[in-house]
Structure formats: C-alpha cells, structure tokens
C-alpha cells in the first residue's frame, strides 16, 4: 500500500470515528442518565444508567429491584423528566409530610393532567388556590362527620351487595364472578355522594357510560406507562393515544354534564334532593366562581377516584380468601363469639372485631390498587441526606416496596393478618403517626395530597368485607385457579377475572337476604 493510500484509508477511518463521536455526543444524552449536581456539588440520588420512555406492565417489579439496588430514595430519568422514587417509610414521611410545602404539587402529565382532566378534578391540579378550593368543596362530603351521615346509605348498598352475590350464585350452588357486583356497590356509593341518587341497575345508559369512562381513565393514566408523557414530539402528532385522551375529556364533560342537569331538573321540579356534592355545587356555583368545566370535572372526581379503587380492593379480598381457609375460620370464630348470628356487623361493631379489622388492613397492604400512588411534584430545590432534589422533580411513592419492607412486615409476601393485631387505629389515624414505621400501610398515599376519600373508603370496605365474612364461606371453583400475581389496569389494579362460590354459613343468612327486595330495603 502506498503512503497516499494509507493516508486516504486513515482519513476515512477518522471521518467515520468523528461521525460516530458526533452522533454519540448528540444522541447519547437522550438515552443515558444526566447526573445533575447543585452549586455545592451535591448529586441527585443514584439510579439506573439508562433513561426510559415508559415502563412496561408490572413495572413495580423492576422498580422494586431498583429500590433494592439503589436504596430508599433513588432517581430515574423518564425521558427528560427527573423522577425520584421513595421506597422507605422514613423518607416518605420526611419528604411528603414534613416537607409537604415543597412536595405537594402535580406535574402536568400530558395524558392525565393536560389532555383528560385539564388541570382539574383535584388530582390533576397543581398545588395552588384552585386545588385548595376544589378539595375543600369535595371534602364537605368526605369528612369523618359527613361519612357518619352517609353511613346508612353505604349500609344499605352493602346489604344489596351481599344479597346480589348470594342470589346470583344460586345460594352458593353456582360460581360467580363478583367484579360486576362490587363495581356496582362502589359506584352506587359514589353516585349517592355526588348526585344524591343511586342506580336501580347498571343497565342505565348514563351509568354504563360513566363506569366505562372510569375504566378508560384507569387504563390511560398510569404514572409511567405512556411514552407520550415523556417524549414531547409524540404530543404533536395525531397518535391513537392522543385521540383517546381527547375523546375521554370530551366524554367526561358530556356524561357528567348530563348527570348534573338531571340533579338541576330534580331541584327545579321541587324534588327533595338529598345533600350531595352536585347539589352544593349548583347552589354555590356563582359564589364559588365555578366554570362549567370545573363543575363537570368535580362531579366526576368521586367516580374516577372512588370506584375502581374500592371495588379493586374488594375483588382482591375475594380472590385471596379461598386460599386462606384458616383466616376465614378465625374470622368466623370471632364473629360468632362477639356479635353472634342474629345480626351482622355494623359500623359500630368495628372496634370489637380486631381480627376482622386486621384482615382488611392486610388485604390493603398485600393488594393496594395503586402500587405507585399518584406522583407528587416538587416546587423548590432541596437537599435531603446528602442528595440534591431539584425543583420540578416528579416524586413517586413506591407503595409496592413500602409494603414489602421486611423490617416493617416480616415475611412480607405472606398474607398474615396477625401482623396487625394490636393496631386499633383507622387508616386515617394511622397516617398521622410521627413514627413512619408504625403506619399501617400506604395505600392511600401520603402528605397534603393524601386520598381525601379514605374515610368513606374505609367505611365501604368495612361494611362490605365484614358482612361477606359474617355471611359466607368463600370457596374456589374446582379446576379454576385464581391468580394473585397478574392484574388488569395501568393506574389502578384489579385481579384478572375469576369466580368463587359463596356458601351461606348459617340459616340466618337466608332469612336476612331473602326477606326483602331491593326497593323495599331502601329507607335512607
Ligand atoms: C380503597 C380505596 C381507595 C384507595 C386505595 C385510594 C388511593 C388513593 C391514592 C394512593 C391517591 C394519591 C395520594 C397521593 O397523591 O399521595 C388518591 C388520591 C385521591 N383519591 Fe383516592 N383512593 C381510594 C378511594 C377514593 C374514594 C372513595 C374517593 C372519592 C370519594 C377518592 C378520591 C381521591 C381524590 C380526589 C384524590 C386526589 C387528591 C389530591 O390530589 O389532592 N379516592 N387516592
């Protein structure tokens, strides 16, 4: 080879190397983490090397592995969005509760918060005056005192639930898929709180649409399942995701707008509409300065937040019981000993049935509907334990790892209600424990954005689960396995469809459930 050939060969190699280096320089930042430090050189929390545009189904498994590798506070880049993940109870309390003034906002996720909810519906509103205003309006129906006032309605719905499960299952002879009945229970409770009415059947067309909107919402709003949330150019092109999000927004306005108008017509025609959220909104709209979109989004809040979550936990409860006959036997013994068979548990009996309460807490721990809660967003730079947490960071509460913390819950993958014996606090009280290791579980989130529906959700769970346990022995169907590992949904988890048999435990169940029909039971 001549020297000129050597030279041209070298220069083409150099050109290729230069092109590769340039491409790497340009594109690598899109794929690898960016280790930011603050002015004092303090780095962001450690975390995986690559950036992610989305995390695949069952993302909690990968997030749990990262938590084990990088610790109770690690960071991961989702596209351009720095996200810190809290997997340790002490860190959760320290940041979300003690520094709630910094960690209580929401990022404007493209799908959920911009497109579908347009910064409304409480959950999508940044930490500002509108959030305080709308949360305060909704809380009128959700405080402990308000829940006491509406307990008779939840009590009634739980009677309908137990009755429907029993009759549809042909007195325990036939297997049933309980999802539909549990969904109706949660939906009717939310309808009463929102619109002051219940649905005689889920076949009502508006009800059907409202329920299917809540399901679509759960599927479209996973905290990190949508690439469109993290890759800005995807938001500019007409993708199927973007169209689904826009359609869901329009449908929420149309369906909930129509439901609001029903309440207005009833009020105008002199009907005695019970106290409910929409009645308050209609009466105070001008004074409160609420736009039509505010009204529609607020009236959708309870259904979007309170149906799949509550019915999801109830489904997990029924899915778990057949594989734990020893737990059922202990609850049945407690029920027979403490309240007997003449009447079933009421809200007042809760304090006297510690093992049954423990079962409910353990179901919420093992099967929280939201493994990653709803991400918070930081509004100031902060340094915590030698780690820099910049302003505008997404903050994910990793409930999955918190609920599998072996120091707090030994043998955490075992369903063991005994771990809650001696814990006589409600979940709402427990959230206030200064010692984060004493909190029962994190299913309702933490800090200023903690679920405002937790009081009513706890009452719903108590009246449904304690009565199922009083009335039935829950058995699996021979030859049909129930998966406790797989699930449906992105932002809220429900088990894969399953069937169970619900056998009456004693004669009194029959007399109680067959005595009256649905309409004559209703006496609010
Ligand atoms: C077992 C049932 C439920 C569970 C497990 C649950 C769980 C959660 C979680 C984890 C959050 C996020 C908290 C955070 O950001 O730290 C949340 C927020 C919320 N939940 Fe629930 N929830 C349940 C029932 C309900 C009910 C019945 C309602 C309505 C009556 C409701 C309404 C809301 C609302 C409006 C928010 C947003 C709060 C805000 O951003 O300020 N939830 N819930």
Descriptive overview:
A four-stranded mixed β-sheet has the order 1-2-6-3. A two-stranded antiparallel sheet has the order 4-5. Helix 8 (205-220) runs antiparallel to helix 9 (240-268). Helices cover 50% and strands 7% of the residues. The protein has 19 helices and ten strands. A hairpin with a 2-residue loop joins strand 4 (382-384) and strand 5 (387-389). By secondary structure, it is of the alpha+beta class. Protoporphyrin IX containing FE binds at residues 122-123, 135, 142, 301-302, 305-306, 309-310, 313, 369-370, 373-374, 376, 443-447, 449-453, 456-457. It comes from Auriscalpium vulgare. This is Cytochrome P450.
Task: Itemize the secondary structure elements and their pairings.
Blueprint: H1 3-31, H2 59-70, E1 73-78, E2 81-86, H3 89-98, H4 110-116, H5 129-139, H6 144-168, H7 179-195, H8 205-220, H9 240-268, H10 277-288, H11 292-306, H12 308-320, H13 325-338, H14 354-366, E3 376-377, E4 382-384, E5 387-389, E6 394-397, H15 399-402, H16 427-430, H17 454-471, E7 472-476, E8 487-488, E9 494-495, E10 500-504, H18 507-514, H19 518-521
Parallel strand pairs: 2-6
Antiparallel strand pairs: 1-2, 3-6, 4-5, 7-10, 8-9
Helix pairs in contact: 4-9, 6-7, 6-17, 7-11, 7-12, 8-9, 9-11, 11-12, 12-17
């Amino acid at each position: 080879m001549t020297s000129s050939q050597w030279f041209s060969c070298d220069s083409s190699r150099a050109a290729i190397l230069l092109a590769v280096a340039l491409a790497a320089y340009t594109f690598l930042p899109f794929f690898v983490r960016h280790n930011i430090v603050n002015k004092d050189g303090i780095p962001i929390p450690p975390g995986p090397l690559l950036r992610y545009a989305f995390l695949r189904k069952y993302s909690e498994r990968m997030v749990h592995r990262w938590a084990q590798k990088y610790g109770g506070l690690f960071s991961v880049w989702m596209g351009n969005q720095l996200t810190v993940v809290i997997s340790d109870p002490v860190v959760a309390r320290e940041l979300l509760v003690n520094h709630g003034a910094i960690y209580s906002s929401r990022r404007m996720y493209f799908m959920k918060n911009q497109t579908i909810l347009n910064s409304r519906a409480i959950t999508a509103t940044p930490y500002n005056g509108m959030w305080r205003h709308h949360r305060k309006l909704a809380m009128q129906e959700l405080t402990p005192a308000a829940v006491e006032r509406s307990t008779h309605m939840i009590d009634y719905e739980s009677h309908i639930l137990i009755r429907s499960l029993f009759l549809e299952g042909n007195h325990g002879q036939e297997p049933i898929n309980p999802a539909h009945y549990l969904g109706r229970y949660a939906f009717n409770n939310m309808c009463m709180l929102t619109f002051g009415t219940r649905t005689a059947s889920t076949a009502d067309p508006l009800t059907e649409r409202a329920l299917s909107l809540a399901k679509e919402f759960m599927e479209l709003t996973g905290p990190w399942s949508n690439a469109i949330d993290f890759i800005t150019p995807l938001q500019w092109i007409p993708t199927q995701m973007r169209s689904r999000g826009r359609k869901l927004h329009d449908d929420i306005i149309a369906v909930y707008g129509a439901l609001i108008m029903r309440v207005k017509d009833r009020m105008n025609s002199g009907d005695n509409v019970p106290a409910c959220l929409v009645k308050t909104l209609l009466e105070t709209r001008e004074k409160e300065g609420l736009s039509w979109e505010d009204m529609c989004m607020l009236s959708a809040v309870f259904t979007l937040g309170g149906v799949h979550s509550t019915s999801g936990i109830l489904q997990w409860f029924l899915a778990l019981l057949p594989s734990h006959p020893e737990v059922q036997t202990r609850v049945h013994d407690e029920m027979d000993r403490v309240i007997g068979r003449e009447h079933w548990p009421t809200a007042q009996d809760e304090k006297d049935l510690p093992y049954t309460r423990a079962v409910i807490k353990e179901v919420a721990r093992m099967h929280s509907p939201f493994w990653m809660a709803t991400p918070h967003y930081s509004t100031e730079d902060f340094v915590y334990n030698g780690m820099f947490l910049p302003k505008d960071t997404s903050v994910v509460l990793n409930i999955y790892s918190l609920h599998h913390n072996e120091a707090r819950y030994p043998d955490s993958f075992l369903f063991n209600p005994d771990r809650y014996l001696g814990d006589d606090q409600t979940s709402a009280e427990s959230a206030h424990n200064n010692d984060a290791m004493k909190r029962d579980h994190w299913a309702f989130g933490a800090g200023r954005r903690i679920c405002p529906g937790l009081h009513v959700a706890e009452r719903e769970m108590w009246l449904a689960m304690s009565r199922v346990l009083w009335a039935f022995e829950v058995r699996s169907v021979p030859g049909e396995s129930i998966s406790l590992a797989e699930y449906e949904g992105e932002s809220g988890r429900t088990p894969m469809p399953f069937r169970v048999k619900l056998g009456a435990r004693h004669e009194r169940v029959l007399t109680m459930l067959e005595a009256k029909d649905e309409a004559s039971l209703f006496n609010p």
